């Protein structure tokens, strides 16, 4: 979708500049030592024991396929920066540990297998260690693929980190190699029990037929599924991680005639791809989708709050087809981005209120897990929509409003929550959204002015875009 970028955080290998005679000769020797016979790429920084368990993995919790509400680590996160700042984030997350996603290549992780059979998990190790330190449930997204699996050049110094290259799917001839890499990752992190196969069908588009290459994706998915289950039958695997695109309701071409609402109409090509995967998958422990409340043309219909009803409709559609499989939203977006993929046009109060409404909509549709794509920056004073302030300085790593919403929502409404109806009365009742169980009520004001309502028999005053929690 091109809305969250690729954020490779690629590490560049360089020979340290040396003074004196013999620099050229030394560089030549080092190059020869780090190059495999018959290969053009360097193996510097790689090892052969990629499948060796890293660190001291904790005993996997019996979480099952439902993990709850969390976030995804992107290019910049709290595994690096000032020790004081990273520790501050770690402690805050540990208070209510959320599940956390990390990709195996890109978005903060380096090329995991630059040359066939040679591995580099240094950055990935650091991310997994951070998740372990917070007590959160680690989730791994198996994306993307090393260059040599997709027609590129092998070598730790040859990775093409352009977005186009990163978002290229592995060649069919290398599907089994990718499944083997997935198994290596599973052996390296035995406490990771949840794996998502690929990301947004990246590279799986059939140009000649102008539709998704769902046959190719499903073939890859099935091979990865089998490989992971061979490592450990208790590993939980999910897909297809399709982008649930919707179109302007006036559009007829590619528009679904059945799955539509005031928010638009679903792209039928997406639904066809989902149905093919669902009918031809070897197995699945949970089902994964992602998408935005706005249309493919970035229209919020009829407004940003009502548009979130798309999450409810799509969730119910998926659940009808997959039965008892838990539903995850691997990504969800409620605020359109500008041309640079930046979302900073709203106040933080408005942003939090719309996200809260989106979470409510997903829960009402039967979703049990959703992951916020954290737009963390490396440095700077501001960070719209981020979970914490940048960790580049000792004063950083301080929690921001979105983190409070996500961790509270996850703690109050874990998987298995039995939602209950709640009364809403008063002049402002049409302006609020609520979600309740037997312990709490989440109340969200959807307008940019204060409202007075009666919720669950109590008088509530909310400021503009106010979000509050009531105990029952």
Care to give the gist of this entry?
The protein is an alpha/beta fold and 472 residues long. It is 27% helix and 19% strand. It has helices spanning 23-33, 83-95, 122-134, 163-166, 175-188, 214-231, 268-280, 309-322, 348-364, 401-412; strands at 69-72, 100-103, 138-142, 194-197, 205-206, 211-212, 236-243, 246-247, 255-261, 264-267, 286-292, 327-333, 369-373, 424-425, 432-436, 440-445, 451-455, 458-462, 467-471.
How does this structure look, described?
- By secondary structure, the chain is α/β, with parallel strands linked by helices.
- The chain has helices at residues 23-33, 83-95, 122-134, 163-166, 175-188, 214-231, 268-280, 309-322, 348-364, 401-412; strands at 69-72, 100-103, 138-142, 194-197, 205-206, 211-212, 236-243, 246-247, 255-261, 264-267, 286-292, 327-333, 369-373, 424-425, 432-436, 440-445, 451-455, 458-462, 467-471.
- The strands form five sheets. Strands 1-2-3-4-7-11-12-13 form an eight-stranded parallel barrel, surrounded by six helices. A three-stranded antiparallel sheet has the order 8-10-9. A three-stranded antiparallel sheet has the order 14-17-18, with no helix packed on it.
- α9 links the parallel β12 and β13.
- α6 (214-231) runs parallel beside α7 and α9 (348-364) runs parallel beside α10 (401-412).
- The radius of gyration is 23 Å and the shape is globular.
């Amino acid at each position: 979708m091109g809305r969250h970028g690729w954020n490779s955080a690629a590490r560049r290998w360089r020979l340290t500049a040396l003074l004196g005679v013999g620099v050229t000769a030394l560089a030549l020797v080092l190059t020869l030592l780090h190059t495999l016979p018959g290969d053009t790429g360097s193996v510097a920084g790689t090892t052969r024991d990629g499948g060796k368990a890293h660190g001291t993995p904790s005993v996997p919790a019996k979480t099952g396929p439902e993990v709850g509400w969390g976030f995804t680590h992107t290019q910049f996160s709290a595994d690096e920066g000032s020790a004081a700042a990273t520790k501050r984030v770690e402690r805050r997350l540990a208070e209510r540990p959320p599940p956390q996603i990390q990709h195996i290549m890109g978005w903060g992780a380096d090329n995991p297998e630059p040359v066939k059979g040679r591995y580099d998990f240094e950055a990935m190790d650091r991310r997994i260690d951070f998740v372990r330190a917070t007590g959160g449930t680690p989730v791994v997204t198996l994306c993307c693929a090393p260059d040599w699996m997709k027609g590129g050049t092998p070598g730790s110094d040859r990775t093409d980190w352009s977005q186009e290259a990163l978002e290229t799917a592995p060649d069919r001839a290398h599907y089994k190699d990718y499944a083997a890499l997935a198994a290596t990752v599973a052996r390296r992190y035995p406490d990771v029990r949840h794996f998502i196969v690929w990301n947004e069908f990246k590279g799986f588009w059939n140009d000649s037929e102008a539709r998704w290459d769902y046959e190719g994706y499903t073939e890859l998915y099935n091979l990865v599924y089998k490989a992971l289950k061979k490592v450990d039958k208790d590993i939980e695997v999910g897909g297809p991680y399709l982008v649930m695109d919707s179109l302007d309701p006036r559009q007829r071409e590619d528009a679904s005639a059945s799955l539509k609402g005031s928010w638009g109409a679903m792209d039928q090509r997406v639904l066809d791809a989902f149905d093919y995967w669902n009918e031809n998958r070897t197995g699945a422990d949970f089902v994964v989708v992602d998408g935005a409340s706005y249309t493919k043309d970035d229209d919020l219909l009829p407004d940003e709050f009502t548009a979130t009803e798309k999450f409810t409709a799509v969730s119910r559609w998926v659940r009808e087809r997959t039965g008892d499989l838990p539903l995850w939203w691997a990504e969800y977006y409620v605020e359109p981005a500008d041309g640079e993929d930046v979302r900073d046009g709203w106040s933080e109060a408005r942003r939090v209120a719309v996200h809260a409404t989106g979470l409510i909509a997903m829960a009402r549709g039967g979703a049990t897990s959703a992951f916020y794509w954290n737009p963390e920056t490396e440095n700077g004073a501001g960070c719209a929509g981020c979970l914490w302030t940048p960790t580049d300085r000792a004063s950083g790593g301080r929690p921001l409003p979105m983190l409070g919403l996500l961790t509270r929502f996850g703690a109050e409404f874990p998987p298995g929550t039995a939602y209950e109806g709640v009364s809403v009365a008063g002049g402002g009742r049409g302006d609020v959204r609520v979600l309740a169980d037997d312990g709490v009520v989440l109340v969200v004001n959807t307008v940019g002015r204060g409202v007075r309502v009666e919720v669950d028999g109590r008088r509530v005053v909310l400021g503009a875009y106010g979000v509050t929690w009531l105990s029952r």
